[in-house]
């Protein structure tokens, strides 16, 4: 694992020292001696991780960190603050500014490398997610998620600790900010974590009868818990196992005696990062799903119908079950647009979609084919029943006039419907054509009626 | 880094031995003693990596591997074959069956762990990509890519080697299968790799004046080369540096003297894996892009217009530049559908879209608003010029009749057009409304004409 690391420090000697250590481990190193240069390098997307000195003349590290986290273009970059003294107050200031992690001078080399490697791994994963999400944002499909906006509060935290006193101290430290569930049994903890619903796991490294790292490793390798952040709670002399844990994919650690502010800040940072990754995933998911949806009505679109009708027909044929398809066309829709404008036409289409949704089952597939034409595919439904459903849709459309503007103007709307049941041939085109012909008959016969195609 | 590893071996003692080693390193281990059980566990998505004994009674390892790689549900699982003897012919058989890697018994622990860790890291990345791609496939937007289908040939390979004789041996081994470019200078190699166009880099570990691992690390951390597979070419006594390389993210290695068949097979495996990851990325990308596209015409859709018109107007206002919007509506389109059927209507719409594309500039944004209505947004275009463009579109539509079926039947088509230039207010809705009103005037005045809205 490697990464481009930006070292920000006003003292050239400090930069040199860190640079030598990181370069020896084959990291790529850039440096900046002031905040302004650092911000520019980050904005130009030149680095993966920022190692940021807290104390600098002019813009100090806290300020640089705050600005990085406030800018959507850089907010996802992990920031490790390097503080001169082990001042808890500095840590809290840095964490408040959004720093992801801390090191104190003189920098411990092993801890530095473990942190940097762990953040590099996360960064690569986030980059992969982010590059998809950036596409969705550039297409205007969803707004790009900003990692800095989440408060990192109200988390549900699973605490795995078998010593009641220690557990109680952690619960009380997080009280009012998060909901903590204590579980003393590691196997049970794994089940609970897999059941979901938690935002983070905090694992005590010294469980009495179980190797806590084994539990961490199991959580990392199980599909259902792979993305759950893990914070280990350790004693200072557990150093080797802490590093092993980071290597296994544990996200962070805190050392006893636990400083409350530090715990709060580290938990917040984990929650933020998880929620950011989750929202990138769901942005991409949402964008992908949009591709199958008609923007105006929210119904599935023609593209979705075309790919799914074939497989629905295949299934029906395979299982020897009925399947009926309904085509609906709004009568004289053109005159709605011409007389009342397109906004009114759009209102009618949306309202039409809502009324159809009310009548059909959730197993039925409703699509807007385009214009004022819709299709409903009804699996497991023979023609006789489908005819009754179609009649019910027709009646629902006619039942009361459609509202076309905010002022409450209404117009009467009716629809013509054609239905056809699948025959021997499992061919989407011929089924659509037969239903379309039935629709045409409804139109010819005076509209506002249902016609069933002969088998 | 951790993972769930499936050990497949008919001898319980072998399973136990590997299991103990992997468990000690906190991997999750499952086992199977025959091919049938192994296939079932893989299909149930129970593991991340398969460690597969070549020699088993009944279904042997080669057969298991072939079946895993032939099934789209399991083809992405990395398979490490364990062969009893260091038989080059076995390696080739296994690689032909699609194995990703090899180990020979007795299994060297350090090599085992390095391989497994490197594959685990890749698997996690692929899982993330794959889970998005699975969604697109389930929506029917694209077909799920099958990792096993690529032949792993015709690669463009960048060989970084400063000894001519050694380079020549590698080139001749790959001749006829891949196109190999030799680069002796490591810095130049980095530039060339970043310029793109290569499918793999092969790096000699003993360059005379440069640490080859530094080059590997730079390729791994540069954005543009991050996804490029790296194969290192090493001497057997370079073992420590080989392991360091795998740790840095090098994908595979081969030891001198190079066995031609092994080199060919390892290169093929890297190319396959890269192309698989690339196609997952592009599937997701394509699915996302579909969300902004009208399925019938391939033009941008209403959703895209709505999100982009606002920003185009903002830009124009900000830079004090003109912007004109055109709305087009096909005249008497309803009667095309009614007289000739929907297939004919669809043909007209597609043909209409093609003709518009021919006339406007690539900087213009053409959208299908829905039905037979289209919008063209023309940045940097004042009303006077836009009027001429609109007139050209109108003339192009009218110029020759539209073909509506395979039999070559044609019908005349015309369009009414309304255009409006942006005013002081940068409001998409009001601009659309003004253009729509102009369109309405074109319709009222007898259709097949262009009307420009007053400023």
UniProtKB/TrEMBL annotation, chains A, B:
Reaction catalysed by this enzyme: 2 GTP = 3',3'-c-di-GMP + 2 diphosphate
Molecular function GO terms recorded: diguanylate cyclase activity
Name assigned to this protein: diguanylate cyclase
Upper classification of the organism: Bacteria, Pseudomonadati, Pseudomonadota, Alphaproteobacteria, Hyphomicrobiales
Enzyme class at the top of the EC tree: transferase
NCBIfam families the UniProt entry points to: GGDEF, PRK09581.1
SUPFAM superfamilies per UniProt: CheY-like, Nucleotide cyclase
Record-listed 4-aspartylphosphate modification sites: 53
InterPro entries per record: CheY-like_superfamily, Diguanylate_Cyclase, GGDEF_dom, Nucleotide_cyclase, Rev_trsase/Diguanyl_cyclase, Sig_transdc_resp-reg_receiver
EC number: 2.7.7.65
Residues annotated as domain GGDEF: 321-455
PANTHER family noted in UniProt: DIGUANYLATE CYCLASE DGCM-RELATED (PTHR45138:SF9), REGULATORY COMPONENTS OF SENSORY TRANSDUCTION SYSTEM (PTHR45138)
Gene Ontology cellular component list: plasma membrane
The Response regulatory domain, residue ranges: 4-120, 156-271
Example of a GO biological process term: cell adhesion involved in single-species biofilm formation
Keywords recorded for this protein, A-Z: Phosphoprotein
PROSITE patterns from the UniProt entry: GGDEF (PS50887), RESPONSE_REGULATORY (PS50110)
